[in-house]
Amino acid sequence: MPRRVAIYARPDRVEALELAREAYRRLLKLGAEPAYDISIAGPLGGPGVDLRFDDVEGVVVIGGDGTLLRLLQLLGARNPVLHLVRLGRRAFLFDEGPRASMERLADFVEGRFRVEEHPRLIVRARGGVSYALNEAAVLALGSKVAGLRVELGGETAYEDLEGDGLIIATPTGSTAYCYSAGGPVLHPGLDAVAVVPVNPLDRRIGSIVAPGGEPVRLVVERTTRPVKLIIDGVRESLLARGAVIEAVLRGPPARIARYRGGGKLRLPWRRPTC
């Protein structure tokens, strides 16, 4: 039962801030210890918590997919249970809109929910570690082409991959950028990743579904300009020739509170029900 609960919302949407204020009032009445993320604590005039450093047991997330992905980058390896309030235009993992989600807060505080876990990638590059719910993408900049070598579990999969780059996607992320780039949709029950070349010059080259526990190792062998490593469309870093990226599906899962029946299968061509 989460008691210390943070509230995270888009600071640039009035409706999101109003819902954050309402969530704070409701949580307080329910006996929880709510606090706003520091990005909205000032405008709302309440206690703040820095989710980059401070531990909480739960987070009320108000927004859509982008809001959720930005939050997960702040949390890093920590994985409090998440109560999702759908407000954004794209909200693939969000079940219910504001009114229904606000009414669910009592269930959230009292622990009347099941936890749905979504595995994340551990991504290592340049001596640092990141975590990805959807994907890690290595992309050439501008009109330039990158030459990559990719190994799966120690075996070479792509010797000299020339093109716009490569996507390594989780089952959750296989419905996002991976799918748009022509990659497969992975069933959420699979312990697997999708390895998807982006616009390869050799059109015979296709995608690979690889075991989640086997590391995907990528080496930037040729590029005239730095390539960009993008984690979940949020975190970006530049990589020069010779850079090595490793990713494996063994990161701490994102934990989402669910209140209704149904499975984890969500498909990009199927409209969500609410």
Describe this structure in words.
This protein is α/β, with parallel strands linked by helices and about 270 residues long. It folds into 2 domains: about 5-110, Probable inorganic polyphosphate/atp-NAD kinase, domain 1 (Rossmann fold), CATH 3.40.50; about 120-250, Probable inorganic polyphosphate/atp-NAD kinase, domain 2 (Tumour Suppressor Smad4, Sandwich), CATH 2.60.200.30. About 20% of the residues lie in helices and about 40% in strands. It is built from 6 helices and 17 strands. The protein has helices at about 15-30, 40-45, 65-75, 100-105, 105-110, 175-180; strands spanning about 5-10, 35, 50, 60-65, 80-85, 115-125, 130, 135-140, 145-150, 155-165, 165-170, 190-200, 210, 215-220, 225-230, 235-240, 245-260. It starts with a strand and ends in a 16-residue tail after the last strand. The mean pLDDT is about 95. Keywords: ATP-binding, Cytoplasm, Kinase, NAD, NADP, Nucleotide-binding, Transferase.
